[in-house]
Specification:
Elements: E1 3-7, H1 20-33, E2 37-43, H2 57-60, H3 67-79, E3 84-91, H4 97-104, E4 111-115, E5 118-119, E6 122-123, H5 136-152, E7 158-159, H6 174-191, E8 194-198, H7 213-221, E9 226-229, H8 242-251, E10 256-261, E11 264-269
Parallel strand pairs: 1-2, 2-3, 3-4, 4-7, 7-8, 8-9
Antiparallel strand pairs: 5-6, 10-11
Helix pairs in contact: 5-6, 6-7
The chain binds zinc ion (2 copies).
Length: 271
């Protein structure tokens, strides 16, 4: 089994397209690349139902779509027998996480991705963002602190791009990084959430898969489940570089992939 469990529904030109037609375009590319199942995971801040959560202009400006048509497009495709799952990429919002979960509760999610993109109004994955005010080690500590908090919240099922803090290639000293990998993997393992192996990092300044091989191995050795993801924002990127993701999973000792239905995971043989 090969899944691509991190996808943003767009048309060929990159515009938001929450339609069955758009789902079909992603499914066609998946079939050509040998990907068995797709999980659509639009950013949570695109949806008006969550408007009360967003005070950062980057997020509130994008908050203009509705959850019902999005869910219906994916569910209709699923009903027609296409191999797709309904998900969402849910942001870390600190002490408002429970409120966000409450707003999302009425919808039939197969799984929810958890992402830390913002900390106290400043971006991790944009520059200058958080990097302008904090040391590299401080950014990493705070990033992983938020990731563990999100994993523990029961708001999400899979952690997206788990070491996103490396996006610009800035990392703490090796001994600090090794300790963070070990401690964070230990905390994630206690929560039961999975981590994704994402090929998106290959297309970012760091030029690597998320997560780091050592971090992934620390997670896998503690029993953390794994999904595979492209984070495609266009159909052409479905399943891109998955040979590298599969090799990374195997190198970390992982031979299974987590498959989700109604926020419940089962393990299937990877590949
Ligand atoms: Zn993300
Ligand atoms: Zn994404």
């Amino acid at each position: 089994m090969i899944v691509d469990y991190h996808l943003h529904l767009r048309d060929g030109a990159g515009a938001i397209d929450h339609s069955v037609k758009a789902v079909e375009r992603f499914v066609e590319v998946a079939a050509a690349r040998g990907v068995d199942e797709l999980g659509f995971t639009e950013h949570v801040y695109y949806f008006r139902e969550t408007r009360e959560l967003w005070d950062i202009p980057y997020l509130s400006e994008r908050c203009r779509f509705e959850l019902d048509p999005y869910c219906e497009a994916v569910l209709e495709a699923k009903g027609r027998g296409l191999p797709v799952k309904l998900g969402l990429e849910v942001d870390y919002v600190g002490d408002r996480q429970d409120r966000l979960s409450e707003l999302l509760a009425p919808y039939p999610w197969d799984f929810l991705l958890g992402s830390v993109h913002w900390l106290e109004g400043e971006a991790i994955d944009q520059q200058p963002g958080l990097w302008a005010h904090a040391t590299t080690e401080d950014v990493w500590q705070r990033y992983f602190g938020a990731l563990v908090e999100l994993a523990s919240s029961s708001a999400v099922d899979v952690l997206a791009h788990p070491d996103l803090a490396k996006i610009f290639g800035r990392r703490p000293e090796p001994d600090v990084l090794a300790r963070l990998h070990r401690d964070v993997a230990q905390e994630i393992a206690k929560t039961g959430v999975c981590v994704e192996i994402s090929t998106a990092g290959l297309r970012k300044p760091v030029g690597e898969l998320y997560p780091d091989p050592d971090f992934l191995a620390q997670c896998v050795s503690r029993g953390v489940g794994v999904t595979i993801a492209s984070d495609a924002h266009e159909p052409e990127l479905v399943g891109v570089d998955f040979e590298l993701a599969l090799a990374a999973a195997r190198a970390a000792g992982c031979e299974t992939v987590a498959v989700f239905d109604a926020r419940s995971a089962r393990l299937e043989a990877l590949g």
